[in-house]
From TrEMBL:
Residue ranges of domain GAF in the record: 30-148
Family to which the UniProt record says this protein belongs: Belongs to the free Met sulfoxide reductase family.
This protein's name: GAF domain-containing protein
Origin species: Kushneria pakistanensis
Lineage, top ranks: Bacteria, Pseudomonadati, Pseudomonadota, Gammaproteobacteria, Oceanospirillales
Highest rank taxon of the organism: Bacteria
Length: 160
């Protein structure tokens, strides 16, 4: 892990995100959150959402960064693993992850948080970094807390 990177104040980011998400509209809120995270969290090369729109398949949603892979089956990659297990995936070296999908060859580490609404997987938030080991346990907890804000302040449809 890069020990020289700046400390991110996730408490402050969570308060700012809470103020930013001033509508219940899920498209607006996920778009705002992807842009906010991409701008505020250092050393990312992609931030965005994949949404479950059909059985065991994720479809690309609002994002910031290079064009992305679409669709992603639950059996594929880090996003698929997060969707399948409903557990956050924090991967220090994506090239060592079985079944990794290389949408951007520059990506080296990944953090994927599943979003659960009414006990149903709505989708995942996916963050990529060009640095190996970019995401710490503190980053994971901070991003998970920000995802809770999104779920609480948005009308995320349980069927799309």
């Amino acid at each position: 892990m890069n020990d020289t990177r700046p400390i991110t104040d996730y408490g402050m980011l969570k308060r700012q995100l809470t103020a930013l998400l001033d509508t219940r509209d899920w498209v607006t809120n996920t778009s705002q959150m992807a842009a906010f995270i991409f701008q505020q969290i250092p050393e990312l090369n992609w931030a965005g959402f994949y949404i479950q729109r059909e059985e065991r398949v994720l479809r690309l949603g609002p994002f910031q960064g290079q064009p992305a892979c679409n669709p992603i089956a639950f059996e594929e990659g880090v996003c698929g693993a997060a969707a399948r297990t409903r557990q956050t995936q924090r991967v220090e070296d994506v090239h060592a992850f079985p079944g990794h999908i290389a949408c951007d060859a520059a990506s080296r580490s990944e953090l994927v948080v599943p979003l659960i609404v009414d006990d149903r997987l709505w989708g995942v938030l996916d963050l990529d970094s060009p640095l190996p080991g970019r995401f710490s346990i503190e980053d994971q907890a901070g991003i998970e807390a920000m995802c809770q804000v999104l779920v609480a302040q948005s009308d995320l449809p349980t069927s799309i």
